[in-house]
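Late entry, evening session. Most of the bench is empty. Finally got around to the prediction I had been postponing all week. Sequence below, unchanged from the version circulated by S.P.
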Amino acid sequence: MAGEDGRATVKRLPLPQDSCRAGPELPILDGWRLCPRCGTELTSRSPGNRHCVGCGSDYWANSIPAVQGLLVRGGKVLLGRRGIEPALGFWDLPGGFLEEGEEPLDGLRREFLEETGLEIEPLEWIGAYVDPYLGRSVLGLTWLVTAEGEPSAADDVDELAWFAPDELPEQMAFPHQHDALEAWRSRR
């Protein structure tokens, strides 16, 4: 489908899995009554914070940090078809969740290697996007990357394919991936 400027436009469709939806109806701290460290009853300082007077621990309802990358060759971007829920079978940007204490660019390199077999290097910052994921919110940090060699699907990716800007899937695994792809398209 083409827009007024003749470029392909993306139609966003709702995901069939309700589990991908996040929102104020299901904050992560809802139902937390006892401190997981010491068992003392928690107090609420604000809607997104619980405090334990027993051990002094604080718990926050933060977005989960993740990384994703756009590898482009010959004017086409590499996408992976998800082999796991949520969004099983949908096209996705290679990437994943950061491990605790992991630097974002180290996590990006690790995730790309796990899912594509490629050792990448970040080239350019694309942006940060918040998406729903199994009742939580994920903060996806996105870079344009480079790599040598041929990708091979692995880990939780069933298939890899290259897409030209006018061949992008109508629906991606997560809503804001269209924004990341549009940011790439607009820089070409």
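Two things to note before I forget:
Residues 5-19, 21-26 have pLDDT under 50 and may be disordered.
The longest strand covers residues 120-133.
Will write this up properly tomorrow.
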